[in-house]
């Protein structure tokens, strides 16, 4: 069998319920189910995570403000009249701070194509209260997500592994007795 | 496509500008103004060819270093001195695998496939940090790697978190948050040995003797011998030079190593009252270049181990693909429509 590359999936992680999903990076996998498992291993070795979404990258439209400015033709397309209206999730980056996520979920929009969703988002101004530097448009039907009942098996185990956190070592590094005690704790 | 074209004859991505483009000078001025203003350059944004080339070169080497970096320590997972140490080491090696993935993702945003990069590594055509071509002889080496090598890596990565390229900066922020645990567990383990039996103290000192200079070489050649530095600094790919970072690192770590009773293996080491700097003796750059060129103690063994792991994983990849095919044939994957 040829050693070819598997399709790439964008990964969106939700740290806690009622927090937005955030674009954290990509994984490669032969199908969405494996993409979800790979995403868990790559992006959730530590808490917190409540939900993960994966979507094939070729079904995600990513655009920067500069890209749109330099190529105004991005918005031009012929949309078939009978194309069905779908739900698109909208992610934006609206700051220049140092963070570990590319874009944050800000809402949904009904449209027939990715570009139509982006045009509507710009026209309606609902997501552009501050400048948007980066857009990600993800059709809802391209997303495979972890389910509520997966939380226990996918994300909970990492919560017990305190030794993965730097805070576990704080202030005790030079305390020999504490070290010996903690060696015994797991033995 | 080739990952490292040497001359800008072909445009690797539509948004990469070539010096021959009619609007190149104007775009370059705008690009540099954005960087000067502290803005991040995102995938899809206009960027000059040389910025693209330097990022592909640096991030791919960094990704490969994370992957190869699993090997020296991975060799000790079965020989960890306690269950707790085994759990910690397993978690650390898993992190390095994940860090490699974050970084391959960052290179992919520049249009270079993960498969291409992994192929280059397996072919022995890719560079990675020379420090991983030294052997891990005792458990104290594993501990010393955590404290020294990860300590040096964090210094570099904290600087790179300020990188002007968004995806590289984000990978660095994520890595630094996790890597601090690597450094602290190493410091804890060495501290324990340095206060332990005479044999444990001997192991700790021996590990420092062997890892000290390779760790200092991780920061790369002196600024005067680093041809890439001016471009990297001008475009804020790097925000501090090799020598600056190396000096910051020795100033921080020397007092800590001394505090646990270890001796720095440098007869020329002295403290400069005036500047507050620890001044180290000459670094053996001949050794550095030998290791980079593939003649280190473990270069061959590292590549052999990586290739073996890849080949032995072949059946797993095939099984996963077969599962995916069968699964797709039976039922459409469960979708959510939030």
Structural summary, described in words:
The complex is a heterodimer of chains A (187) and B (338). Chain A is α+β, with helices and mostly antiparallel strands and 187 residues long. Chain A has one domain (8-186). Chain A has five helices and eight strands. Chain A has helices at 32-43, 65-70, 114-124, 151-154, 176-186, and strands at 8-14, 22-28, 51-56, 61-64, 86-93, 103-111, 134-139, 144-145. An eight-stranded antiparallel β-sheet of chain A has the order 4-7-5-6-2-1-3-8. The longest helix of chain A has 12 residues, at 32-43. Chain A is elongated and about 70 Å long. By secondary structure, chain B is mostly helical. Chain B has a single domain, classed as Ferritin, core subunit, four-helix bundle (Ferritin). Helix content of chain B is 62%, strand content 3%. Chain B starts with 15 loop residues before the first strand and ends in an 8-residue tail after the last helix. The chains are: A alpha+beta (187), B mainly alpha (338). Chains A and B meet through strand 2, helix 1, strand 4, helix 2 and strand 5 of A and helix 4, helix 7 and helix 13 of B.
